[in-house]
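Sat 14:20. Reprocessing the chain from the morning session after the first attempt stalled halfway. Input below, unchanged.
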Amino acid sequence: MELADGDVALRPIKLRDHRAWREVNQRNRGWLRPWEATVPPVPPGHVTPQRPTYRQMVRHLRGEAQAGRMLPFVMLWRGQLAGQLTVAGITWGSMCSAHIGYWIDQSVAGRGITPTAVALAVDHCFHRVGLHRIEVCVRPENVPSRRVVEKLGFREEGLRPRYLHIDGAWRDHLVYALTAEEVPEGLLARWRERTVPDTSQK
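Finished this time. Tokens:
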């Protein structure tokens, strides 16, 4: 399965992406580290979990996908790996919701890649998967990531204090959300409409 719009595409992460993923991820260490999840200190006598290898990560993501709890994608820009987007925490029953996380190569940030990728993923979740609500939780200090969801029209719902362990400490996060009823025309269509230049005054 591949979701695409112009030069931007999403497809499931693969073991053979290892070399490209590692190159992009390592090159962006300073750019990504302040926003990455970390493991809090464990009580005495407990073993601190080790950071998984790429192979272990992909196998875990695939297992979660097969169980229906996750959709793990890589972001492509003109056919090249440019980042990662994961739909996680998929919950069914009376909730039908999930949350989205993402990161992108700093060298191609600011070109509309991430908003397009998020819009593709949201439309897929609403119209193909059957979810009703999507959340994106962002640290208040992460201005570029907040701009992504604000450009797309996600609602800011409030602050979750000390919500996730990020970069070595428990960090507050702002919650942004969107429901299927808010974008009946599709989020990608809304995003395209907002990026088309207004020529009515020319």
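The chain is about 30% helix and 30% strand.
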